[in-house]
Every structure is written in C-alpha cells, then in structure tokens.
Amino acid sequence: MEEKHVHIVTHDVPWPADYGGVIDPLYTLKALRALGIHIHLHCFTKGRQPQAELEKYCTRVFYYPRNTNSSSFSLHIPLIVNSRVHADLLTNLQKDNYPVLLEGIHCSYYLFSGQLNDRKVILRLFNTEYKYYGQLAACENNLFRKIYFLHESRLLKKYEQGIAKKATILALSTHDVTIYREAFRADHIHFLPAFLPYNLAAGDTGKGSF
C-alpha cells in the first residue's frame, strides 16, 4: 500500500495544548497519524519551545521564528500573516508534491502569493478573522490598540476575500461557512467541527438515583 504524506503548517507550536488555538491542530495531528498518514509538521513560534511530544505523531517537525519586529508591519498584508512569512518554509514545502494543510489564515501567505498554485491545499479556518479583529477593536479602550485592530480588520477582509477561492476551506462553524459563501463567494468551503480529545464516553454505567 502506498504511503500517504501531508504537510501541516501551524500558526504556533501545538504542544502543550494549553489554549484554544492549538487544541484543534494538535488533535488533527493525532487523528491523521492514527490513520497511518505521515505528517511533515511546520510550526511558527514566538517563545514556545520545540517539543519532543510532537515527534510521536510526525515524521518530521520544523520550527520557524515569527518575525514580530516593525518590518512585519504592512499597509497591504495583515500582521498575523506577514509575521509568518519564512523562506525556509517555502523551500521545505517545495521539496515534494505532498498535499498541504494550512492551520489558520495566519499561515496562508504562500497560498495568497500563488506559490502553492500547483499543489493540493486545504485551509483550516479558525474564525472569520476580519470580523474577529473588528470585535477586538470595538472592545478596546486603548486608542493605539484600537487603531491597530481596525487596521488589521480592514486588511484581513481584503486578504480573506483574496484567498477564498484559492483552496478548499474547512471552517470550524457553520456561521463562518455562511459568511464566506455570501461575502466572498467561496465555492469550496465546508463545515468540519473541531478535533477534540473527548472521543470516549467516560461516565459511570448503570442507573443513577437522581
């Protein structure tokens, strides 16, 4: 039987699974590995260290530092994307022709730029990011942070529209599916619930006394 391989690019190191943004990526790794798929994992990081735990599920693990200095600030590309552009990532992806799973808009620059046009690419959507950043702006009292969130929201709306038809998209909510179809005319977007650790019933058997 032919071995199956996939590249997975994550916006952060998905271990430990100690906040919401890395839970779904981690359990996606585990689910795919359980199916016998060889995973080539690419992690962006800012402060989170390499983790030997990930080597249990992945054939190879690569780490790339996020560039969060002023040079990543752009008038055209959202910061959450532009800070995760790394030439070594593209080089490693181009060494073969395996499918690519991008975990979050954050990791999608090379999809947006057209440098993955010849590949099978799936984009995992965490949020409709431009709406999320708009909500952050509405809740922010600090003027400079509010301006930043509004700027990022504006860039994200244009950016998300630009990639909406470039890949198959898997959304975490039906609400995001509706937005992408109606606002961006996305043709290939589907709802796929989050991968979670709770795959076995753990309650006591028998009849209670409530």
Description of the molecule:
The protein has one domain: Rossmann fold (3-Layer(aba) Sandwich), CATH 3.40.50. Helices cover 35% and strands 17% of the residues. α1 (20-34) links the parallel β1 (5-10) and β2. It contains 7 helices and 7 strands; from the N terminus they run βαββααβαβααβαβ. The protein has a 7-stranded parallel sheet with strand order 3-2-1-4-5-6-7, with helices on both faces. With 210 residues, it is of the alpha/beta class.
**Uncertain ranges:** none
What composes the largest sheet?
7 strands, parallel
Oligomer: single chain
The CATH topology is given as Rossmann fold
**CATH level-two architecture:** 3-Layer(aba) Sandwich
Short note summarizing the structure:
35% of the residues lie in helices and 17% in strands.
SSE layout:
Elements lengths: L4 E6 L9 H15 L3 E8 L14 E6 L13 H4 L4 H7 L6 E4 L5 H4 L8 E5 L3 H11 L3 H21 L4 E4 L2 H11 L4 E3 L19
List keywords for this structure.
single chain, about 210 residues, alpha/beta, Rossmann fold, seven-stranded parallel β-sheet, about 35% helix, about 15% strand, globular
